[in-house]
Amino acid sequence: MNKSPYFAFTALSYRILHVVTVLAFLVIGFLADVYFGNVGAVLLSASIPLVLVFIDYFAFAGTSSQKQKNMQFLKSSCKGLGFFRSALKTDLLLKHFCLLFGYLGFILAEVIYFTDSEAFIDSLLVLLIYVPISELTLNITLILSRRISLSMVIQIAVCYICSMISTILLFMYSFLLPEHISDFTLVIIISFIIIQTISIIVAIVLYKDCVKGYISSFSDT
Amino acid sequence: MDQNNVIEAKNINKKYKNFTLDIPEFKLPLGFATALIGENGAGKTTLLNILTGLRQDYTGSINYFGQYSEKDLDNKPEVKERIGYTGTDNYYLPSWTVGQIEDISSLIFSKFDNAKFKKLCNDLAIFGNANFDKHKKVSALSDGTKTKLMLAGVLARETDVLITDEPASPLDPLMRDKLCELIREYINSGENKSVFFSTHNISDMENVTDYAIIMEQGKIVEQGFVEDLKEKYIVVKGETADIEKARPHLYTMSQSNYGFEGVCLAENLDKLAGLDIVTETPSLFKISVSVMKKNSLIK
């Protein structure tokens, strides 16, 4: 067995890294908002996907490298494949929670140290819209990248970078509209419901294809 | 679907940058040991990975056991339960112990026989002189022993078809002989058991091979029961003086100080009439090498 140059991937180490990231960003988001204000915190929060890219790179690079055939054992069994899919589903959820908690630090700081309700509602709404959009981006990117046979690590990197760009754009957009918060709220809530519905449908319909993309990438890389 | 085939595939196509696997029709005969032969890069592993469902990025259709499609491989657990598979490299994690492999195999396969696994481990001398050691780590085993462990793992399952990629390569001659014995035992262990293995060790595996499929550059270039192939091809030996006359009719030819030796189609033997030649039945090795040479890019 060729040793991976990356540290050993285990489900536990992977989850510990995620939890550490969540907590770190909760604290950093909080402090950034207190000391640097909204813009600093927003940019910092938007960089969470970059950190997750590195975690995934170290976690999956060993598993998906050409010299590691361990996935074949799981793939040769339906139950093993089931475990893999279940783990993948959990990981996707975990990533969303990581992103969510990163923003929570920012929101907590807004609640405790600032009384600017408009800014708070703004950030909360942006957070609400961010989650389904990132989910949509994640799924669509996975499908598109499967079509052009990218490796798993690249797929994940691409979808995080897309998420990051969409986050920054959304925040920028939200800062432009603080004056008409009530109309904005209405529009945002309707948009949220529509996007959430679309993202759930896309996730349900295309999830299997995403998994196939992940699985094939193990043998493609 | 022909009831005499365990797996049938149609129009299998997988494109790489400089290589295309293109198999219009594939049939794996039921109840026999089938060898998949071909030079490096011929597409053997890709074909095996497609048939076992490890690769899903191909076009074409596959029928398993006369009743399941390729989509059922993932959707119906009973299909994969009936297929045993081992790959070219060790697929157990190096940090696993033999005991953990047993536990994990029991967890992910329904019909895994723990007692049979232990017996196979002992029979194949995986622990040398010692008895079954569940604490032994995979990383502490040699390459050949890891292959033996994978074989023990897959043979401990109750399956109907065993698909194995290059099982003989890392094994010593004695173990290759034992492998032939295990394959024969597997086929004889029940009705409708079939084995499909790829190999470069044609001579060592010949005595267990019933049916042979020869691949070159992503295509099946020859296939048939070994006995039929041995009637289809014939080895011809002759004098140096007849080399040029014989050459056009031979598949392949090798020359020495004493004359030539080559393989030709038995139906073309009359074209060599008048030459001072001796004929003999070819081995599967000679047939395979001749067919591969005929179709190979190697000059």
Give the second-level CATH assignment, the architecture of the largest domain in chain B.
Answer: 3-Layer(aba) Sandwich
Would you report the number of β strands of chain A? 0
Mean pLDDT of chain A: 58
- Terminal CA distance of chain A: 17 Å
Poorly predicted ranges of chain B (pLDDT <50, ≥5 residues)? Answer: none
Q: Tell me the total number of β-strands of chain B.
A: 14
According to CATH, the homologous superfamily of the largest domain in chain B is P-loop containing nucleotide triphosphate hydrolases
- Approximate strand percentage of chain A: under 5%
Summed up, the domain count of chain A is 1
Shape of chain B: globular
For this structure, the quaternary state is heterodimer
Order of helices and strands of chain A: HHHHHHH
* Average pLDDT rating of chain B: 91
Could you give a short account of the major beta sheet of chain A? none
Structural class of chain A: mainly alpha
Helix content of chain A: over 70%
CATH topology label of the largest domain in chain B: Rossmann fold
Largest sheet of chain B: 6 strands, mixed
Q: Order of strands across the biggest sheet of chain B?
A: 6-7-8-3-9-10
**Count of structural domains of chain B:** 2
H-E order of chain B: EEEHEEHHEHHHEHEHEEHEHEEEH
Task: Characterize the structure shown.
The complex is a heterodimer of chains A (221) and B (299). Chain A is mainly alpha-helical. Helices cover 86% and strands 0% of the residues of chain A. Chain A has one domain. Chain A has helices at residues 11-46, 48-64, 70-75, 78-113, 117-147, 152-175, 181-220. In chain A, helix 4 packs antiparallel against helix 5 and helix 5 (117-147) packs parallel to helix 7. The longest helix of chain A is centred in the last third of the chain and has 40 residues, at 181-220. Chain A is elongated. Chain A starts with 10 loop residues before the first helix and ends with a helix. The model of chain A is unreliable at 1-9, 61-68, 145-153 and 206-221 (pLDDT under 50). Chain B is of the alpha/beta class. Chain B folds into two domains: 5-224, Rossmann fold (3-Layer(aba) Sandwich), CATH 3.40.50; 229-295. In chain B, the strands form three sheets. In chain B, strands 6-7-8-3-9-10 form a six-stranded mixed beta sheet, sandwiched between helices. Chain B has a four-stranded antiparallel beta sheet with strand order 2-1-4-5, with helices on one face. In chain B, helix 5 (114-123) packs antiparallel against helix 6 (143-155). The A-B interface holds A 1, 3, 8, 67, 69-81, 83, 149, 212, 215-216, 219-220 and B 49, 52-57, 73-74, 76-77, 79-81, 83, 85, 87-95, 107-110, 138-139, 146.
